[in-house]
Structure formats: structure tokens, C-alpha cells
Amino acid sequence: xxxxxxxxxxxxxxxxxxxxxxxxxxxxxxxxxxxxxxxxxxxxxxxxxxxxxxxxxxxxxxxxxxxxxxxxxxxxxxxxxxxxxxxxxxxxxxxxxxxxxxxxxxxxxxxxxxxxxxxxxxxxxxxxxxxxxxxxxxxxxxxxxxxxxxxxxxxxxxxxxxxxxxxxxxxxxxxxxxxxxxxxxxxxxxxxxxxxxxxxxxxxxxxxxxxxxxxxxxxxxxxxxxxxxxxxxxxxxxxxxxxxxxx
Length: 247
Known about the structure:
It contains 9 helices and 9 strands. The protein has 247 residues and is an alpha/beta fold. A 7-stranded mixed sheet has the order 3-2-1-4-5-9-8, with helices on both faces. It has a two-stranded antiparallel sheet with strand order 6-7. One of its GO terms (biological process) is methylation.
């Protein structure tokens, strides 16, 4: 399963690098404006982990805002694309977010993860590691597929189960199979609350620019949410968390 995700994103890396940032309205005029709005205006001297950086769009924005950024991705092709984009302005690592992360305890002020965590089956290890490497009061900002959208792709129609979905994306006349995990809204919320305190839950709406580009898709998104954004903070260190450990 993991090898399938890596293979899919190795194939998609070129599209992300050269097309997504300028042509994909779902990214440019839907998810990204809502995520950026939740960031501090000034991130100078802030240590940020871009967890699942893809081709590095967020990495670049974070650097421009003054952050000290480490970016990671499981796809070596995405890592290469980010390195081409960012040069020596940020460190870029090839990492699997389901494994122990090579960072000391309390290393980061902010972890940002855009449309990545739904590719992970069990969030326990990932969230445990995120909690460990965040500083006291640190923030986690992540976006995922909206559970209501994903359920329409379900084959087993068991809403409360976590289900592997194989989606198909058309790119340059070819179909690429993209696997991810669907889960219920309650599972998303409760798993996050095991490790963090939730500050904001955002169901983003497309911008007016999106409407001018594609009125039909705009109306669809206004009545059928596709993404869900969560902003959370590290819990008090006095509270013992599942899987918590230090190095």
C-alpha cells in the first residue's frame, strides 16, 4: 500500500511542480487561501515542519514569511522538486511520517501538513511524534479530504470504518491510481483530541476567483465540501498522552 502511494506521487511530481501551482483551482483558490489565513502574519525565527511538502509551494511561502523550515516528503521525486524550488533556503528530507521522526523533543513551533494525513492508515504514531517534537504551546495545522466527500467513493458503505479507497486521477491523458484512507468525522476529531487541543475546524469555501474560473465546480463546492482543515495546539505537558515518549 505504501509503495503504491509513493509510486503515485513520484508520477505526479512533475504535474505538481509545473501545473498545480498555477492551474489547479482546488489548490490555488480553495485549500490554500484557507490554510494561509490561519498562519501568523509574521513567522520570523519560527521553526516550522512542512510535513508532506509535495513540490514545495508551502515551503516557499513559509520561508517568505520568515520561518526556519524543514520540509519532508515520502516521494523522492517530490523532494527533488522542492529542492529545485527552494534551493538552500530550507532543508528538505525524504521521510515517512508513519515512522519515528529524526528530530529532538520540542523542536518546532508549528507543524503544517497540507492534504497528506489521509494517506496514513493509523494516525497514532504520526500524531504521537508530532506531539513530541512540538514545543509547549506549539501548533499543528493540517488539511485532509472531507469525510463527507470521501464517503461517496466508499465501496463498503460502512461510514464508521476506516477504508482504503483507490481513486483515479487523470493527468496528461493517463490515469494514475491514488490510494488513500477514508474515515468518519468522529474518528478525525477524536484521534486529533487524543494528542492535541483543537482550536479551529474549517470547512473552506472556494474564493470568488474560483467562481469566475469555473462556476459549476464553485457551486458544487459550496454545497458539497471537499476539504477539512484543523488547527490544534499541543496539550499541557502534564497530561500523559498515548504513545508519548522522549529522546
